[in-house]
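Subject: for your reference before the review

Hello V.,

The reviewers asked for a structural picture of the protein, and I figured it would be easier to keep everything in one thread rather than splitting it across files. Below is the amino acid sequence we used in the manuscript, unchanged from the supplementary table.
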Amino acid sequence: MKIFRNIFILILVFVAQSAFASGYPDYGFATGNGVRLRESPSTDSKILGRVDESSMLVLLGEVKAGGKTWYKVEHPTKRGTAWIFGEYVDNYASFDTDTPAYKTLVQLFRDCGVTAEKARVLLGKPKRTSKRKFFFDPANQDFHEEVLEYPTFKLQYIEGRLRHVESSGEALSFGDVSVGDTTAQVLDVLGEPDGKGDEGWSYEVSPRDVLLFEFRGGRVAKMTFDNYID
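And here is what came back from the structure prediction:
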């Protein structure tokens, strides 16, 4: 019976790989605590980890198994992927997700890791790490921050989620845009910006997610991502 079960799981994975919609990769959030991440879209498969409510997930695709939706995700803390039961994922967005800026942001989450643990797996040991706890008035609670500094880029994680990225070198691109690209190349990839000012060009991915490109001599000198906490 175990052989047949394994064959069935392999068939499910194959169907999932072939049925992924063009809207992926995407991102979403876990809606429960201790939600299991599994090796394949089946409750019989190996548990690869767990996530808690509001944990960010990069969604790679989905499949129906037993009439239920499963999502394939980037493992949030380890190398590789995992599967999560769809009832514990919210990927609803009230903003336009079919834009170059949104796709760039999702790729940035994939390249940097949605957690500091994943960043170390993907990018290696940082040059410097700092941690602190601070009181955030709007939420009336303490938040935990971890900053990973590499030679040409910096990543900030607050409450275990990527909130800020700065890149001033070619080691970390923002999707198809890299430091050194011309303004024409940025326009070709991302289109017209939402704002132009002394600080550069800004692309508002959502009301809380913004990509900023600073230029020097007509070329990208620095790229920044900010997720504003409310």
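For the response letter, the relevant points are probably these. The longest strand covers residues 56-65. The chain has a mean pLDDT of 89.

Happy to draft the paragraph if you're swamped.

O.
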